[in-house]
Amino acid sequence: MQVSVMFSGGKDSSLSAILLEPFFEVELVTCSFSLLPVGEVAAETAERLGFPHRIINPDVSILEKAYDMIMEDGFPKNAINFIHKSFIEHLAADSNVTFIADGIRRDDRVPMLEMSQIRSIEDRFGVHYMCPLKGYGRAAVNELVNKHLVIEEGLSEDVLKADYETELREMIARNHGPDKIKEIFPTHVQSHVIERKRA
Amino acid sequence: MQVSVMFSGGKDSSLSAILLEPFFEVELVTCSFSLLPVGEVAAETAERLGFPHRIINPDVSILEKAYDMIMEDGFPKNAINFIHKSFIEHLAADSNVTFIADGIRRDDRVPMLEMSQIRSIEDRFGVHYMCPLKGYGRAAVNELVNKHLVIEEGLSEDVLKADYETELREMIARNHGPDKIKEIFPTHVQSHVIERKRA
């Protein structure tokens, strides 16, 4: 059984892949709209983790629609959720994909599918959508991360990560300058995986 | 890192243990009030799965309180949730226990802790409460079960399983006769694990 793990290069998606590895053939998949080399950054991390990796490039109209949403809302939640759902649907539409894994944790709020959206995607595309960390709190995730990964943490603007935020921020910066990003996105700590600890 | 997996001998708790096995030292723990030999039945299944197992015997007053609740309510939800929470707190109070794993799935409704109850238990006892299957839907669980376990399924009254329902049903039968059970518990299919498939 093969699983496609949605991969940002961060600790949660990396740990999800590691937890699935004994039970599935794992491939890591990164979503990029080609504004920044986020796919390549993720590919490098994937190689250090020891998993095959591919980049998918959904239509840039998805990023543009997310950009319109965030400019209208003034906050990122709906835009991030929209890209996230579009990425999952893009993956689910691939006839070679049966299991999709998402790195969200118990305490995550964004991005997040509603239960009705999950059921709809599973039914429409005949896939299994799985969140291996959904039953784990922050402290338990940290224990597992410390055991299996070496990470660096930094503020969002200093760590290049292949999450949905990165290219959305870039599009805002191109259109409005970097100060606009600070208005819209709360400053928060990002993790980037450096390497895997092997026993 | 050792994890104590709450174990009923059913497919969900068995699969939870299997998913955790590569990352933790797994022990299976079954809760019994000694009305029926459910602990011994679970111990036999645990041996076939290849995991160490122990039985804990919380005070029978917990079963009695659950019995009062179910007789007053006329349905099992609150009584089952009460035993479940008491079992977790009993485990969490053990100073050798740091990680507790529960076999509930994404689509389960009972038993279920509220998020505030989970946080309260984690904070009060300094434990991590984890649900390895919480991010998996029924179909994905079934795929994993088929790959790793041989199970038998049958109606609740025909399959002796070490879940909370079993001894609660027995207490009702002793006090009111077997017909009372059918009034209170919906008939549903139970699974019991026969053996583990090894690659």
From TrEMBL, chains A, B:
Swiss-Prot/TrEMBL keywords: Hydrolase
Protein name: Alpha hydrolase
Keyword Acetylation among record annotations: no
Keyword Oxidoreductase annotated: no
An example molecular function term from Gene Ontology annotations: hydrolase activity
